[in-house]
Design a protein that fits this description.
- The chain is an alpha+beta fold and 661 residues long.
- The chain has three domains: 412 residues, Glycosyltransferase (Alpha/alpha barrel); 101 residues, Immunoglobulin-like, CATH 2.60.40; 113 residues, no CATH class.
- The protein is 34% helix and 18% strand.
- Strands 2-8-9-10-14-12 form a six-stranded antiparallel beta sheet.
- A hairpin with a 6-residue loop joins strand 19 and strand 20.
- Helix 4 runs antiparallel to helix 5, helix 6 runs antiparallel to helix 7 and helix 8 runs antiparallel to helix 9.
- The longest helix is centred in the N-terminal third of the chain and has 21 residues.
- The structure holds beta-L-arabinofuranose and zinc ion.
Length: 661
């Protein structure tokens, strides 16, 4: 389709800007290199090669199975045909809910992240084919959406609280930027710019009112500003976050609560409403803060972060307790079997904490990222790579939880883009040196912020083993700091660090929950060793989490564990309690079980008569009676559940000191 002359001139100017930038290969998952209020800076995905280890099989499966099979599903369910029919190439009705375009764009973003790690001609060809199909459906104005067309055309932008028009285009822009950063090709990006320009030219305080409804576009706009230098996109993100249009758009109080938009972001004091929207809005607001330094944003982000981690986040890093409205509950409302914990919400939690880490440089954000990544996100995709959880409960009676397709198929491509972009989160840089955020065998090939080349080789079997070896290779001997994250989970355990002398640190000993700064004149080939103690840890929840009263959860390293029925032959796991008799855990790595996992065993007590045979209420006696038989409880990592036949599962396990042989 042809676009107007003015639009072409603008695109020409924009491309000159982009070309002058010439930096498309140096950008990370988000590009904060020039963000004045970012304390840390992302390194590009291609600068980190991930070697063998915990994530390698999953990442390979992502490329070989998940990404291709999901495209087949998207095609089969009409998501691509929704575009083709607008071009007159398919005579079929439009299919799927109003946000299906976004699922294809998210899939494309996953592909673009894969391509940032190295070329894959087949995937690149698919991306280009889809770009052609998508752009052919774009209207001369820049508008693009397969749902709000034909008889619905007059309704465009009239139901923004639910329309997903900006949500969809936000995902297109993110995919386009990721592809531009992979290949330098900006065809899709130009399409995204056309829509963004349409928005900034026609909407705003003195123009038509806009609202995201489902936040997402804010993140995309800030990234577009970072990519093009066009300040209008940043300002438009600020306008959307300001929620000023709630009156012009006649939003009801309920809509405002649910949407996490339509109310000034900076007036928020707690998380409520739709969890994914809340996480995406917070991510966009953090992006906005990193560009503007607006203190009101920082204050709100801190307040919300504390609201989340003090009362509304599952131990798995999942968020969103309620199915109704896919929403947050009250503080401490964290049911287990009913937990919603949408995969996208855990992903949103990681995306937000990644941005907070870049903004403030504090390890507490990387702790949340790691928690979500290894648990509430990781559970979202089957080990086969072709089945997905939409919900991620912490207890199950054995309902089927994984499917290859959902009509609302937001989670599968979201999981794929996280796995594809993983190298980009492992390291970052700051003015004083390099940060090791996450642990995995990998090589960083990048440079310090003063331009000195740096190579860091990391060797580890984390999270199964706690030893991490780093070989630091600056291009020449240079004075800088290496910041190694000491996870909060290592509190109460021993952390050993061996660094070549001489060096200086701010703390005498590494402190859990902080980056350990090692400052020295690093010479090529310098080696350091860190040893985390991977011992099983029993955790209790705040007593205000009623569902977890009298129960414990098990963690080891960054992993949350669970009991699943196939590992507990001979008894119903809901009749079992962890028996605290001082015998402790026995661990064994089982290479053939569930892709290779560390299994943890502990003594348990199983009631002699199943609880289901008891009356609902019975007289209270002084001592809670739990005569039982001692059994071995076998715990597996939570992420690996639901990879066998559907069966019972439990994260929070009753706890007892009574057990009879
Ligand atoms: O509305 C688009 C996506 O579908 C949301 O992010 C998910 O929560 C699901 O509702
Ligand atoms: Zn989802």
């Amino acid at each position: 389709m042809r676009h107007s002359r003015i639009a072409s001139l603008f695109l020409l100017a924009a491309s000159l800007l982009l070309a002058a930038d010439g930096d498309w290969q140096s950008e990370g998952v988000v590009s904060v290199a020039h963000s004045p209020y970012a304390k840390l800076h992302a390194v590009p995905i291609h600068a980190v090669k991930m070697g063998d280890g915990f994530w390698s099989a999953r990442r390979a499966t992502n490329v070989e199975k998940s990404i291709p099979t999901l495209l087949a599903e998207l095609e089969q369910h009409g998501v691509v045909a929704n575009f083709l029919r607008l071009e007159g190439k398919k005579d079929v009705p439009r299919r799927g809910p109003l946000y299906t375009d976004s699922d294809l764009y998210k899939w494309m973003e996953a592909v673009a992240f894969v391509l940032q790690s190295g070329d894959q001609p087949k995937l690149r060809a698919e991306f280009d084919r889809l770009t052609g199909i998508i752009l052919a459906a774009q209207e001369p104005s820049g508008y693009l959406n397969t749902y709000w067309t034909e008889e619905r055309t007059p309704k465009r932008f009239t139901e923004m609280y639910r329309s997903h028009e900006l949500y969809c285009i936000g995902h297109l822009i993110q995919a386009a930027i990721a592809y531009y950063r992979a290949t330098g090709d900006r065809k899709l990006l130009d399409g995204g710019i056309r829509f963004a320009n349409y928005m900034v030219e026609n909407f705003g305080p003195q123009k038509r009112p806009a609202l995201t409804g489902h936040p997402e576009f804010e993140m995309a706009l800030v990234e577009l500003y970072r990519t093009t230098g066009d300040r209008r996109y940043l300002d438009f993100a600020g306008y959307l976050l300001s929620g000023v249009e709630r009156e012009r758009l006649h939003l009801t109080a309920d809509q405002i609560t649910y949407l996490f938009s339509g109310k000034p972001f900076t007036s928020r004091t707690e998380f409520e409403g739709h969890a994914v929207r809340a996480m995406y809005a917070s991510s966009g607001a953090t992006d906005y803060y990193m560009e503007t330094g607006d203190p009101a944003y920082l204050k709100t982000l801190e307040t919300l972060w504390r609201d989340l981690v003090n009362g509304k986040m599952y131990i798995t890093g999942g968020v969103g307790s309620r199915e109704a409205g896919e929403a947050f509950g009250e503080a401490y409302e964290l049911p287990n079997a009913q937990a919603y914990g949408e995969s996208c919400a855990a992903i949103g939690n990681m995306m937000w904490n990644w941005r907070m880490l870049l903004a403030l440089g504090e390890s507490r954000f990387a702790d949340v990222m790691e928690r979500a990544l290894y648990n509430g996100i990781n559970s979202g995709m089957s080990l086969s790579g072709t089945l997905y959880c939409y919900r991620n409960p912490l207890e199950s009676s054995g309902e089927k939880i994984r499917n290859e397709w959902y009509d609302t198929t937001c989670c599968p491509p979201n999981l794929e883009r996280i796995l594809a972009s993983l190298p980009g989160y492992l390291y970052s840089t700051g003015p004083k040196g390099v940060y090791v955020n996450l642990f995995h065998t990998s090589t960083l090939d990048w440079h310090l912020e003063n331009g000195t080349g740096i190579r860091i080789a990391q060797q580890t079997e984390y999270p199964w083993k706690g030893a991490v070896d780093l070989t630091v290779d600056p291009a020449h001997a240079a004075e800088f700091s290496l910041f190694v994250r000491i996870p909060a989970w290592s509190d109460g355990t021993t952390v050993g660090v061996k660094v070549p002398a001489p060096f200086s640190t701010r703390q005498d000993t590494p402190k859990a929950g902080e980056y350990f700064e090692i400052h020295r004149r690093w010479k090529p080939g310098d080696k350091m060793h860190i040893e985390f103690e991977m011992k099983p840890r029993l955790v209790r929840a705040n007593p205000l989490v009623r569902e977890d009263a009298g129960r414990v959860a098990l963690e080891c390293g960054p992993l949350v564990y669970c009991l699943e029925q196939p590992d507990q032959p001979g008894f119903n796991l809901f009749d079992a309690a962890l028996l605290d008799d001082g015998t402790g855990f026995v661990s064994a790595f089982q290479p053939d079980l569930l892709g290779g996992i560390m299994v943890l065993k502990h003594r348990g007590s199983v009631v002699d008569r199943p609880f289901s045979s008891e009356p609902l209420y019975r007289p209270f006696r002084e001592q809670f009676e739990r005569p039982g038989t001692v059994v071995a409880l076998t715990f597996i990592p939570y992420y690996a559940w639901a990879n066998r036949e559907p069966s019972r599962m439990e994260v929070w396990v009753p706890y007892t000191t009574v057990g009879t042989e």
